[in-house]
Amino acid sequence: MHENERKYSRGGLLISTLLFLIGIVFSYFLIVPLMVNFLGNYSVSQDVLNRISLSSYISSVVSVTFAVGVVFELPILVYFLTKIGIVTPDFLKKNRKYMIVVLLIVSAIITPPDMFSQVLVFVPLWALYELSILVSKRVHKRLLKKAV
Questions:
Q1: Predicted model pTM
Q2: What is the tally of structural domains in the chain?
Q3: With the CA atoms of 77, 82, 86 and 89 taken in that order, what torsion angle do they form, in degrees rounded to the nearest 10?
Q4: pLDDT of 113-147, one tens digit each?
Q5: Cα–Cα dist 55/58, whole Å
Q6: In which domain, by residue range, is 135 found?
Q7: Nearest Cα to Cα of residue 50 among 37, 33, 63
Q8: Could you report the per-residue pLDDT of 74-99, keeping only the tens digit for each?
Q9: pLDDT at position 43, please?
């Protein structure tokens, strides 16, 4: 690799890893305790016992934590989509209200079925979407400078 390719790949790898780790830490310390509390206290009736196995617990924790970590990569995805010309900052701003609905659906899918944890996941996702708009503006501005 050339020196400038190494520089950009190091920066991209660092930011990507950092976002993923922030998503994992966020999930592990905020979402997983809520999920365990909800699933531990949930009961269908007095006759049905709630028995959570270790494999079920580990599977749930890993899947939720990994899903949130991947979702926190949204700014990286928007960066590449803007770079190849599929997404523009104006498009992201114009469709913000639709993305709020999509983010609410995503947060409902990756959290236990209670409103508090859904909102707890939605707020950072919305912040990441707004950050993605800023990233898209910056990339789009660079592309316009290169075109001129």
A1: 0.80
A2: 1
A3: 110
A4: 778 878 888 999 899 999 999 999 999 999 888 88
A5: 5
A6: 3-147
A7: 37
A8: 999 999 999 998 999 999 999 999 99
A9: 67
